[in-house]
Amino acid sequence: MKILQINCVYGSGSTGKITKDIHMNLLERQMDSYVCYGRGRKNEDNNVIKVSSDFGSRIRKVFSSIDGMPYYFTKWTNKKLEKIIRELQPDIVHLQCINGYFVDIYRLLKFLKVNNFKTILTLHAEFMYTGGCGYALDCEQWKLGCVRCSRLKGGLGVRGRDKVKKNYEMMKKSFRDFSQLVIVGVSDWISERAKNSNIMMNHNVITIHNGIDTTNIFYPRKTERIVKKYGIPSNKKIVLSVVPNLTSDLKGGSLMMNLATYTNEDDLYFIIVGAKEVEKNIPNNMLIVPYTESQDELAEIYSLADVFVLGSKMDNYPTVCLEANSCGTPVIGFDVGGVKETIFPNMGEVIPYGNDKLLKQTIVKWIDKKSTFSNKMLEEVRKRNSKERMTEEYLSLYLEVLSKK
After folding, report:
1. Looking at residues 62-73, what average pLDDT do you find?
2. Less crowded by CB within 10 Å, the N or C end of the chain?
3. What is the pLDDT of residues 20-55, one digit of tens each?
């Protein structure tokens, strides 16, 4: 069996790590596995091929933001990718997250369809059944067809013309009559959305939840080193969140800033991991840990926290919740997207979005429950969240797809 995965990145970010985990697992099973990706460092693995340049992706992003077409300006990358596919002749082409300005998605789908390649598409976000946005939020145009976008700049990053209607129609055409296609949602929530979309309603859609490395990385860790490194007070209860931007409400950055600023409980200490731009006026009860590639350090911080808070306005299947639970930390999040599917039973809860008062109460409710989690529960959560479980489910799907004519 020969599998070719295509993703925007490899080995970094959530989808890059998932792609690598599947690839390595297949190689360990003595199977032919290949990956094509578009951005990031060149990999030394001969079976992992970079098909675009970072500079080229940045240029295409600029053109796309003006023209309003996010998946154009990639003719030469597509030709290179098509040549690789023809030479490899994979049994299955597995498309992961293929946005990121490195490939013309419409052309790639047409190529796979016309040449009758068995294809699996994993939905990590919503852009494959919308006019181009990764999160439709409360907009429901995607069900029948996007016409105009009220979030053109914020949602699609477009500063020029509104071409969401054309984007939508081209995506719909790409999926039409694609008989050798199986669509995988990484949450039941996004799978149901796909089934209700005009683009994907006639296709086979299933769910395979993402997995993480719960054997070597995300498990309860000792925390003395991380406490010493960052000078974290030992007499405080730790509230943790992972956000890329402290001023945005999409992933809860501004929420966490406000929560720390206006929380009166003296025993609470807030840690924010991943913020690219650090604000000047940081509350005294908050520590900002810049984005780190060290998964071990991140696991130590998860293990240190008394509660993890996900303040996202929308999230499909956030792996940060899996990581926190697997390190033995309860998770609190808003009931949006597939967030509730990530929380292990009796290891956290979801609440209605925007209810900040209830969020504070729920933090207090869960802040002392970590010590009550049994070793058996922690073993079960790591098994459910493991990359081994995920790759086994994909392998079963690969075999099922291959068995059909």
Report:
1. 75
2. C
3. 999 999 999 999 999 999 988 888 899 999 998 888
Q: How far apart are CA 66 and CA 130, in angstroms?
A: 19
pLDDT at position 367:
94
Q: Which tokens go with 305?
A: 């926290």
Quote the CA–CA distance of 80 and 82 in Å, as a whole number: 5
Amino acid letter, 83? K
**Which residues fall within 8 angstroms of residue 17, CB to CB, at 6 or more apart?**
11, 212
Strand positions, DSSP E, 323-391? 331-334, 348-351
pTM of the model: 0.92
**What distance in Å separates the CA atoms of residue 201 and residue 196, rounded to the nearest whole number?**
6
**Which residues on adjacent β-strands are paired with residue 333?**
310, 350
Which tens digit of pLDDT belongs to each residue from 304-362? 999 999 999 889 999 999 999 999 999 999 999 999 999 999 999 999 998 888 999 99
54 to 19, 69, 79, 234, 281: CA distances (angstroms): 19, 19, 17, 43, 34
Q: Residue 240 forms beta bridges with which residues? A: 271, 308
CB burial of 222-244 (b: ≥16 within 10 Å; e: otherwise) equals ebeebbeeeebeeebbbbbbbbe
Q: Identify any residues that bridge with 375 across adjacent strands, giving them in sequence order.
A: none
Q: What is the largest CA-CA distance in the chain?
A: 65
